[in-house]
Amino acid sequence: MSLVVAGALAAGLILVEVAVPTEASAQPAAPVRLTLDAFRGAGAACYDRSAQPQTAVVDSHLHFRPFGGPAVPFEEVVQYLEATGVLFANVYGIGQMLPPSSPCTYYLDCPGTPLTPTLRNDFVNAANAVTKTPEGLHLTLSMTFPDLADPGSVLAGMELLDDEYPGLFRWMGEVNLVKQAVFGNGRGPVPAEAIDGWAGFMAVLRERGIPLAIHADLGNDEEPTLYLPLMEKVLGAYPDNPIVWVHMGLSRELTTMDPARHAALMASLLERHPNLMLDITWRVIDDAYFSTPEGRAAYVPFLNGHAERILPGTDFLASRDKDLDVYREELEVTSRILGHLDDEAFRNIALGENYFRLLGLDYEAPRVCSVNP
Ligand SMILES: [Zn+2]
After folding, report:
1. 32 CA to middle of ligand 1, Å?
2. What is the pLDDT at residue 8?
3. What average pLDDT does the segment 257-275 reach?
4. Which among 190, 33, 168 has a CA at the least distance from the CA of 96?
5. Contact 281, 335 (CB under 8 A)
6. What is the bridge-based pairing of β-strands 276-279 and 243-246?
7. What CA–CA distances, in Å, run from 170 to 117, 186, 243, 353?
8. H or E segment to which residue 91 belongs
9. How far is the CA of 282 from the centre of ligand 1 (A)?
């Protein structure tokens, strides 16, 4: 399935429209979209940031399944990607679901209703991904079922998925280490003692080169680094596992931390833990940090300086009350910071080079066209 039009793809670029602005018509040209061919290395055209989208071509954090209630059909989420130029995506389920009998779609609307880890959404995603992934898209299936507080159950779950879909799951997460938003639904922080019990499944993930994406709140506005020791324990115990810290530990509960202090803490963790990556997904991060002058002053140099350690994405959640407009807006908001990055960082983060390297994918991000003044 092509993204926009078929044909005329010699350079891997689809020229939607060539418009030379004149005095009479100053209409900007429609953005030029890429296809997977642009990521096959030799001969691919360079990426012109002045004419092509500043949004990421990778969505490394996309929940195809909601906490409860009806989901946006798989085919429709795929159409959102095609409509917005996203070519690579992780297929996340959701780590913890509301009971099937619950009328709720969002846990915060139903405090007291228990959220429980389940394999349900991973099986649904796998069945859909196998039969409904269009040719022009590269999807990576993720295991979202693990209950990190009950590590003994994780290998058993992996075996169930292996039996049905051997070799298909190439990512694990988003799994929750500590998420304050779900405390009211019976999910407290994972006890520090449980982390030692991860050794068995972490060894399998290492063998398979599967990254683990962890949601771990750094803290809250009262105590910004309250939960840092939990994440540090994980990083210290499993230094050879590729680990993605989602949202850089930020959340709705932590919107007022000094950006310079947060960026310095992240830089120090990246330097001490070479297999750690950060995902900068979720619009809350842009709303509270990236979009303020102090935030940009702290994070643009941080992201440029650690450009090989950052993954982009939306954190879109496919509950039926959402549509293409919501996805498009979340992609634009979470990509806004990318427009401020230097070309090398843009290539690594927005054009997917980090994602390909982390997963060992046989793709190569196009280089950014040099600007001739
Ligand atoms: Zn998420």
Report:
1. 29
2. 36
3. 98
4. 190
5. no
6. parallel
7. 19, 29, 13, 17
8. strand 88-92
9. 7
Give the pTM.
0.90
Q: Which fold has domain 54-359?
A: TIM Barrel (3.20.20)
Q: How far apart are the first and last CA of the chain?
A: 38
Angle in degrees, CA 145, 146, 148, rounded to 5: 150
Do you know the residue count of the chain? 373
Ligand 1 centre to CA of 315 (Å) is 5
What distances in angstroms separate CA 363 from CA 62, 260, 359, one per listed residue? 20, 34, 10
Distance from residue 214's CA to the centre of ligand 1 (Å): 9
Determine the distance separating the centroid of ligand 1 and the alpha carbon of 265, expressed in angstroms: 22
In the reported structure, the alpha carbon of residue 174 is separated from the centroid of ligand 1 by a whole-number distance in angstroms of 6
How remote is the C-alpha of 49 from its chain's centroid?
22
Ligand 1 centre distance from Cα of residue 11 (Å): 35
Calculate how far, in angstroms, residue 286's C-alpha sits from the geometric centre of ligand 1. Answer: 15
Q: Which residues fall within 8 angstroms of residue 127, CB to CB, at 6 or more apart?
A: none
Within 10 A of 355 (CB to CB), how many other CB atoms are there?
28
Residues 92-150 pLDDT 10s:
998 778 888 888 888 888 888 888 888 999 999 999 999 999 999 999 999 999 999 99
Give the C-alpha distances (Å, rounded to integers) separating 4 from 33, 83, 206.
8, 8, 38
The structure tokens 């090989």 sit at 308
Find the 63 Cα to ligand 1 centroid distance in Å: 7
309 CB neighbour count, 10 Å cutoff = 24
Q: What would the pLDDT profile of 8-65 be if each residue is shown by its tens digit? A: 333 344 434 334 444 444 444 445 678 999 999 877 789 999 999 999 999 999 999 9
Give the pLDDT score at 372. 56
Each domain of the chain, given as residue ranges in start order, spans 54-359
Please state whether the peptide bond connecting residue 174 to the residue before it is cis, i.e. omega within 30 degrees of 0.
Answer: yes
